[in-house]
Every structure is written in structure tokens, then in C-alpha cells.
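chain below, 216 aa
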Amino acid sequence: MASNESKYVKHNLPHIRQRFNWDCGIACILMLISEQQRNEFLEGFKRICLEEGFGKSTWTIDLCYLLKRFNIKHRMYTSIQAANNRTLGEEVKDRVWNRFRNASYNGISVVEGALSTKQLITHVVTTGPAIALVDAALLSCDWCKHNKMASEFRRIFGGNYQGHYIVAVGWFDGKLLYHNPARQHSLCATTPKRLHAARLAPGTDYDLILVYNYKK
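prediction:
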């Protein structure tokens, strides 16, 4: 990407903020679907969450099923096709495992393996947006300055994992542009190095969803 650092690319998605402390992934989905679909989702929010079975705990594979529900072509990459958390109950682990097991049957593409940050950026520049699971404590924005100091302390001294979803939407001046559903600021930017650290933190399982079509 070095030769294209000044290139400006941005996918035209609305910035939508999460409404609760658990629905960042759902907010990312809302950015990718049409306005009509968005209204239908919000009007039937409780019903759809119940039908999908995730309650107030969404995993990346749940986001894939939502994308499939709204006919958004995508592919998920992950280092492990399971709920990789020892503190979870067996019911949750079984639910997530079954969603992975049935993904292919339901027309959902899941690839076991980590995609590099360079490959993520190439996809965003050439093809479409992407949903990335990151450690929020390690991600900072160079434009709105959110989390700059805190992320530096976290990198130096360590801390607890804070799983969070963002939508990568563009590239400019050597930085990845993204929507952060937790922030009021409509567009954020970070360096590939910072994004890499936030993506590969223990707990993310390197989860990434590449999107190939979205509702403009």
C-alpha cells in the first residue's frame, strides 16, 4: 500500500451509533443495509434478535447470519470456528458451534484462518467495506484523538480485553478510515500498525468479515 498512501477511497455508508453496551456489531450491520431494511430491523428489533437466538450477546458468526438475512454478500475469516471463551456457559458454546456447523448449509462462507491487515486494507481499497473485531482499548483515532493516551498506556502496561466491532470503509494518507459505532464522530482514521495491534489482540480470534455488496 505504500505507493498508494495518498489515494482517497471511501465507501458511502451512514454512520450509525450503537444504542446499548452490547450491540456494536448490530450497529455495523445497520450501516451496511438499505434504509428500508434498517427501518424494518429497528421496528422488529426484539423479534429479530429472538429469531436469531443471540439475545444480548452477538458473536461474529451471528453478524454473518444477519448479513445473509438481508442479502449482503460476504465472507468471514476466523482463527477458530467456536466460542473461544472459557467463562461461557455450555448453552452459549453449543449455540455458536451450531451456527458455525450450519453456516455452509445456510449459504454462509466461513474460512478458518487469519487475514492480514494488508489484505484487509486491499479489500477495502479495491472491493468493499469490512467488519473487524478489535480490542477497543488498543484502537485509537488520529482524527478525533479518541483513546490516544489510554491506548498507549494499554500497550505498555496491558489490561483486559474489550471486544468491539468497527466497519472499515476507506483509505487515505496512509490510514484506514472506519466507522466506530461507539463514537459520535462520524469518521475515524488509524494507522495499519495500530489496527494490526487491535485486530490481533488475544480474544479477537482474528475475526473479520469482508463485504462484497452493500445497500447504497
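Helices lie at 24-32, 35-43, 45-52, 60-69, 90-101, 117-126, 148-157, 192-199. The two ends are 26 Å apart (CA to CA).
thats it, cya
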